[in-house]
């Protein structure tokens, strides 16, 4: 075959299932109907065979067919990932409600996956009641899901999310900074590396300022300068710091035009408002759902690649009702109910927010208590019950702009004339709303946010 000949490689998933014909229990198919149906199927198969043979015999083409059948291991991995995504959603909404209680009328932003992955690594070193509290606090049912399967699920999910993409940039990882005089069990280090891609850095915590700089420099580099100071203070009693980071950057499938961004009001409630740069796009067809039961609008804006953002806009005065209903089933209903809809005018604030949480004060509300007390059993880390967790720090940054989640573009005031539209559908995110960024391949929640004031960074 000449070297210049085009090569076609076709991948096919072959699914064989019983042939279902409209036969009732009392009416067996007549011979003529049976022969007619069989003849039609045979005719299609013969046509496909002729096309295949014609392609194969062509001197200028090569043709390859690949049949992929999932192995039991692949099926197990897929089921683990989907189960983990559902459990992670349950944990995300439970933690969200606690953060809202502790931070009323404030912006909320966190990565449920980053927090759950860090706690799952910690559970590798936990035993007895401490272990059970951590995993049950993450919403795992230990009678249904063995601990080993939980860690395998996280491993598969991390591997899937870490695959490089052309348009979506997701960087996830972990690092354990360990006091250089502390002896860590080899089994703990090996499992953390194999399952969570977590490495160990031996650190001199007797020099707290140098140790803090080492940790912050590492996080700053891994998050592309977005999180500049994870640790604000360390003391000489610190012997180990577990860091988990996630960085996400995506471009909208349909971007906003920076020249259409203008200054507008965002209503905070109680007759208060702030001026914000408001992005605008016309004639956008995108998945939409009006939830009459919860009195909210749900819009999906897709990124180029395997990620999407759901924006949930409660009706006036209905935010608490929506928040109280946040469950995995609610999110599933929203996703299943989305249908393409033409939005004549979509208005979305351009914003950049950051948050900072000390989760050791919040996780006990989810049942994770013992690890912060003198009863903590982290003996699978050092071989002795000599460690407790003193701090769980979580910082997150989110930028939403015209081109995607991280961009800089000029804004200005623009007045335009446009032709009149009868009964235009206008959707304006000019009051508090929710935002969920998720990976579409695994349905994993990457970030969950509540925007109460886009002006408050």
TrEMBL record:
SMART domains: SERPIN. PROSITE patterns: SERPIN (PS00284). InterPro entries: Serpin_CS, Serpin_dom, Serpin_fam, Serpin_sf, Serpin_sf_1, Serpin_sf_2. The keyword Cell inner membrane does not apply. Keywords: Protease inhibitor, Serine protease inhibitor. The keyword Membrane does not apply. GO terms for molecular function: serine-type endopeptidase inhibitor activity. Residues 93-454 form the Serpin domain. This is Serpin domain-containing protein. The lineage of its organism: Eukaryota, Metazoa, Chordata, Craniata, Vertebrata.
């Amino acid at each position: 075959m000449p070297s210049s000949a085009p090569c076609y490689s076709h991948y096919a998933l072959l699914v064989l299932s019983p042939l279902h014909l409209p036969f009732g229990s009392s009416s067996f198919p007549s011979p003529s109907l049976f022969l007619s149906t069989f003849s039609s199927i045979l005719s299609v198969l013969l046509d496909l065979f002729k096309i295949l043979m014609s392609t194969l015999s062509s001197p200028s083409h090569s043709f390859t067919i690949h049949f992929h059948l999932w192995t039991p291991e692949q099926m197990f991995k897929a089921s683990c990932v989907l189960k983990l995504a559902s459990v992670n959603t349950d944990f995300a909404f439970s933690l969200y409600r606690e953060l809202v209680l502790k931070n009323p009328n404030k912006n909320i932003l966190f990565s449920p996956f980053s927090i759950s992955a860090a706690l799952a690594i910690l559970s590798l070193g936990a035993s007895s009641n401490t272990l059970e509290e951590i995993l049950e606090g993450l919403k795992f049912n230990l009678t249904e899901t063995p601990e080993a399967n939980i860690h395998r699920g996280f491993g598969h999910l991390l591997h899937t999310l870490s695959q490089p993409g052309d348009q979506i940039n997701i960087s996830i990882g972990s690092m354990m900074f360990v006091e250089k005089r502390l002896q860590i069990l080899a089994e703990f280090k090996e499992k953390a590396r194999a399952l969570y891609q977590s490495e160990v850095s031996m650190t001199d915590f007797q020099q707290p300022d140098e140790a803090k700089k080492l940790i912050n420099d590492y996080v700053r580099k891994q998050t592309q300068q977005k999180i500049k100071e994870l640790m604000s203070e360390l003391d000489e009693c610190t012997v180990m710091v577990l860091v988990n980071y996630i960085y996400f950057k995506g471009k909208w499938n349909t971007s906003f035009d920076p020249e259409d961004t203008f200054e507008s009001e965002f209503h905070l409630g109680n007759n208060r408002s702030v001026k914000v740069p408001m992005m605008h796009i016309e004639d956008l067809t995108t998945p939409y759902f009006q939830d009459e039961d919860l009195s909210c609008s749900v819009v999906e804006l897709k990124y180029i690649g395997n990620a999407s953002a759901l924006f949930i806009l409660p009706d006036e005065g209905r935010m608490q009702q929506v928040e109280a209903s946040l469950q995995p089933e609610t999110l599933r209903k929203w996703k299943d109910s989305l249908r393409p809809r033409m939005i004549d005018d979509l208005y979305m604030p351009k914003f950049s927010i950051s948050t900072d949480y000390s989760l050791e004060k919040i996780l006990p509300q989810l049942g994770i208590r013992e690890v912060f007390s003198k009863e903590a059993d982290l003996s699978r880390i050092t071989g002795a019950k000599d460690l407790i967790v003193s701090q769980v720090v979580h910082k997150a940054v989110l930028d939403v702009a015209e081109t995607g989640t991280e961009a800089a573009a000029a804004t200005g005031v623009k007045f335009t004339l446009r032709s009149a539209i009868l009964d235009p559908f206008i959707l304006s995110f000019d009051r508090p709303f929710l935002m969920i960024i998720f990976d579409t391949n695994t349905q994993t929640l990457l970030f969950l946010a509540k925007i109460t004031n886009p002006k408050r960074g």
